[in-house]
Specification:
The structure holds two protein chains of two kinds. Chain A is mainly α. Chain A has 15 helices and two strands. The chains are: A mainly alpha, B alpha+beta.
Chain lengths: ~290, ~350
């Protein structure tokens, strides 16, 4: 206990009484944790918590969720029962929502359970449960959904690698969509657009990408950022108008007349959907980032 | 929503790097639940702006929860906070008003003379009369007539009403069901069976009037918007034989409904989700008997000849041009003929169930 206390003072800047307090509050004994085990668990989290926030960071943890997950990872039977009671149906419902197919949902949820239970073993024969990577920064339910989504996307990507010939032809045909300007104009336009995009904040670029590239609805984006969809709509309107103004300004700097710049910014609505399709295809097929950790 | 020029989107795509170190599931969850500090949130947002995979994960993981709090717009939140301390004011004012009414004897009301509308008005004139009431002369009938106008118009829209009427009516029912499309042949029958209510000009009450029959079929998009405004109480009043026919619903505004439509075989009591395509974005739907057509972005069109059990993709083109625009409306013209309304392009027509197409 004294070790844990000294660690707490040094690493998290909190008093020993704080660790005791949260040990009692979290009912860690119910999950089969002694105080020293609990202290070691907290110590293991130190590198993942925001540095210098002390007791505040510790209080922000979802301790009960964390203890449940770690107890399950350690093979604590009552905790497994509790976990299954709490999350079995929710996990299956989330899988069904993603796959929209009953057998696919069962398969996805089962593979998730296998990972959570820990089918992989280390050299010493110890089971490695996916639940050990849960750090308690968000809710356990949210974490389970996120891991499930990652697994689903990994699987979906491997299935999507086969592209039909028609699709390839279609993509190739639409590559020339930005044609119509001279090479010099296109280069100026590209530079101006890059500069204007760089001047946006991360959140603004995220909104643009989510709405225009991924085709998410305002409601979807609102849920992701916990904003009302009307707020998302207002922000998007503002970002697009700012972006246009900045592009016109940048083009003006390289000698393009305002009227010509405005003309370049005209949207060909007919091509908009096909462009979105092209963008989505390119994102899905050509620029696949690394798979999520399994 | 404002559309971005194509080259901006292209530059945006090119900013998506090929490989990234993804944030952990824990961090993404904490981001979605607003539990990160500003610095970490900024870092995650910067990653999300570049990484389509993590955006997809976040979107899939942040499904709507039943107990999820309602995120009001900022202005609404502020207004709510501002009035919180006055929450007792309304009951207090109501109590004062009640006391006042009890103490002051009400004057004897005389029956007002009736204003009657000409009996020979056509159906469209009848609807128009509700919205454009002639200014009455300042007689004793003026006050009741004005009262009637001040009341919200309670009109139950029927399939085939014009767009301008739809706009008015959509404000009236408080909880409209999603847009419902029923077979065109049934739409007219439903119109004939359900009375339209409009305000009685004399007393401000609502009395049933003659049903309004639309002589020409409205475009599918308008009909969907119209039926969206049809309250469930009105659906329940449809005759049994019509209720047993399938009703169709398409909600294009939610990601969860991507590629799906809904069908009700019991007059709107229960709905069954039908997955037409995994990836299609559907915007238009039309049904005629057991023939159902749905279409959407990229010119995708699907046809079911067995009331939604099996779906066949239909290629729309005339040998020279293939439709690639967004189908915004489908109009069933009876038999095997349908007309497609396409965003910013000419429409397409077929008279043989989709085998041959021609541009309008």
């Amino acid at each position: 206990m004294s070790d844990a206390a000294s660690w707490s003072e040094v690493r998290l800047g909190q008093k020993p009484s704080d660790v005791e307090r949260i040990y009692r509050q979290s009912c860690a004994e119910e999950f089969g944790f002694t105080f020293s085990e609990f202290s070691r668990l907290i110590e293991g989290l130190s590198e993942h918590l925001a540095a210098g926030e002390g007791a505040k960071a510790l209080d922000a943890l979802r301790l009960k969720d964390l203890l449940l997950a770690r107890a399950c990872a350690r093979g604590h039977e009552p905790s497994w029962d509790r976990f299954l009671t709490l999350y079995r149906e929710k996990l299956y419902a989330a899988a069904l929502k993603m796959t929209r197919d009953e057998s696919g949902a069962r398969e996805l949820a089962d593979s998730m359970y296998a990972d959570l239970f820990g089918t992989r073993t280390e050299r010493d024969g110890k089971r490695v449960s996916k639940l050990e990577s849960y750090l308690g920064r968000g809710s356990l339910e949210g974490w389970l959904r996120t891991v499930l989504a990652q697994q689903y996307i990994n699987r979906f990507r491997s299935e999507r690698k086969l592209v039909t010939f028609d699709e390839i032809i279609e993509i190739e045909d639409r590559r020339e969509i930005a044609e119509g300007y001279s090479a010099e104009d296109r280069a100026s336009l590209a530079r101006a657009t890059d500069t204007a995009l760089s001047s946006l904040s991360s959140e603004e670029r995220f909104l643009l990408a989510a709405y225009y590239l991924d085709g998410r609805t305002l409601a979807d984006i609102g849920r992701m950022l916990r904003l009302h969809e009307s707020s998302v709509s207002r922000r998007l309107e503002k970002i697009t108008s700012t972006l246009r103004k900045r592009i016109v300004k940048e083009l003006g700097r390289v000698g393009v007349a305002r009227s010509a710049a405005e003309e370049m910014l005209q949207v060909d609505v007919r091509n908009f959907d096909s462009l979105s399709a092209l963008v989505r295809n390119r994102l899905a097929q050509e620029r696949q980032p690394e798979s999520f950790p399994k | 929503m404002v559309k971005l020029p194509q080259f901006v989107l292209q530059r945006l795509v090119l900013r998506q790097p090929e490989s990234l170190d993804h944030p952990s599931a824990d961090t993404l969850t904490a981001f979605g639940e607003q539990r990160l500090n500003n610095r970490e949130r900024g870092e995650v947002l910067a990653h999300l702006a570049q990484c389509p995979g993590c955006r997809e994960v976040l979107a899939l993981a942040s499904v709507e929860q039943p107990n999820e709090p309602v995120y009001l717009p900022r202005a609404e939140r502020i207004a709510k906070r501002r009035w919180r301390h006055l929450r007792w004011a309304v009951p207090l004012a109501a109590a004062c008003l009640l006391i006042g009414i009890v103490r002051i004897p009400s004057p004897v009301r005389k029956p007002a003379p009736q204003l009657t509308a000409p009996a020979s008005r056509s159906s469209s004139q009848q609807v128009a009369a509700v919205h454009h009431l002639p200014e009455p002369a300042k007689t004793s009938a003026t006050i009741p007539a004005q009262r009637a106008r001040r009341k919200p118009l309670k009109i139950h829209l029927l399939p085939g009403t014009t767009e301008s009427t739809v706009a008015t009516v959509q404000q009236a029912p408080p909880a409209p069901p999603p847009n419902i499309v029923e077979p065109a042949t049934e739409a007219k029958a439903a119109a004939a069976s359900v009375p339209i209510e409009e305000p009685n000009l004399t007393a401000g009450a609502f009395l049933p009037r003659q049903p309004v029959l639309q002589e020409t079929a409205a475009p599918a998009v308008e009909r969907q918007a119209t039926l969206r405004a049809m309250p469930s109480s009105l659906l329940a009043r449809l005759p049994i034989e019509q209720r047993e026919k399938s009703l169709w619903s398409l909600d294009a505004n939610t990601a969860d409904s991507r590629g799906t439509i809904e069908k009700s075989a019991d007059g709107g009591k229960t709905w069954q989700t039908i997955r037409v395509s995994a990836y299609a974005r559907l915007y238009a739907l039309a049904a005629d008997g057991s023939n159902v057509w749905v279409g959407g972005a990229g010119g995708v069109l699907f046809h079911s000849a067995d009331d939604g059990l099996h779906w066949t993709p239909v290629i729309v083109g005339d040998g020279q041009v293939r439709l690639s625009g967004t189908i915004t409306g489908i109009e069933s013209l009876g038999g095997n003929s349908i007309r497609l309304k396409v965003q910013s392009e000419v429409g397409w027509l077929t008279s043989d169930g989709g085998l041959h197409w021609r541009r309008e």
